[in-house]
Amino acid sequence: MRTFLPLLAAAGVAHAHFTMQYIWVNGVDQGKNVGIRVPPNNNPVEDVSSPNIACNVNGATGVAQTISVPSGAEISFEWHQHDQRTGEDPISGGHKGPVQVYIAKAPSTAQSFSGSGSVWTKIYQAGITNASSQQWASDVVNANGGKHSVRLPTSLPAGEYLLRAEMIALHTASSYPGAQFYIGCAQIKIASGGSADPAKVSLPGAYSGSDPGIKINIYYPAISNYPAPGPAVWSG
Ligand SMILES: [Cu+2]
């Protein structure tokens, strides 16, 4: 029995996980979990070949609400560890890593769209945000009330979409599996837009466990230029 005690103690100080809980549109909070495919708990996805890498556990199934957004809207994503907006760090500060955002156009409604197939376009990425202090995008999110933002390209066609925000915690990523993928998908409807048809990737498919941004020791040597996994950002 004695030998279990250190293990229990170690588990007690493990970093708490987190989920995406709010979407903001042009600075307006849309409400808790509105339009969001909520996973059953705050655990990360670690298997990049799993269908869960698209929209988290149970994320292939739609929810009733789809959020209307104007063309070119600024969308903010807000993450928390637990069912509370205050009283603790939004995300536990030990979770260091990049933030990425993808979008996928639904053939019909966002609610009926699973997000499978070659449908995803990356529209945002941030990795190391200050090399000298080894500040990560996740540190900025934590300091910003759990929020990060992206502006939707105005050239996106009108229609319904899945928006996929991802925070990858790399504190245990020196071997694979180890990187922790925190994923939140929201259903949005863009009323008007352009006619862009950007390059797309599939999830799973775009990531490999040997990607240098997924299997990575973030503590040594110091990172000056993080090799973000997945495709290049499409800026519209
Ligand atoms: Cu965690």
Outline the structure in words.
The protein has 236 residues and is mostly beta strands. The protein has one domain (16-202): Coagulation Factor XIII, Chain A, domain 1 (Distorted Sandwich), CATH 2.70.50.70. The chain has 3 helices and 12 strands, in the order αββαββββββαββββ. The chain has a 6-stranded mixed beta sheet with strand order 3-11-10-5-6-12. The protein binds copper (II) ion. Residues 1-16 form the signal peptide. This is AA9 family lytic polysaccharide monooxygenase.
- How many separate domains make up the residues? 1
Number of strands: 12
N- and C-termini, Cα separation: 59 Å
Give the amount of beta strand, in percent: 25-35%
Helix vs. strand class: mainly beta
Any guess at the CATH architecture?
A: Distorted Sandwich
Largest sheet: 6 strands, mixed
The small molecules bound here are: copper (II) ion
**Can you tell me the overall shape?**
globular
State mean pLDDT (0 to 100 scale): 94
Q: Give Rg in angstroms.
A: 18 Å
Low-confidence stretches: 1-13
> Strands of the largest sheet, in order across it?
3-11-10-5-6-12
Signal peptide: 1-16
Keywords: Carbohydrate metabolism, Cellulose degradation, Disulfide bond, Hydrolase, Polysaccharide degradation, Secreted, Signal
Family: Belongs to the polysaccharide monooxygenase AA9 family.
Pfam families: AA9 (PF03443)
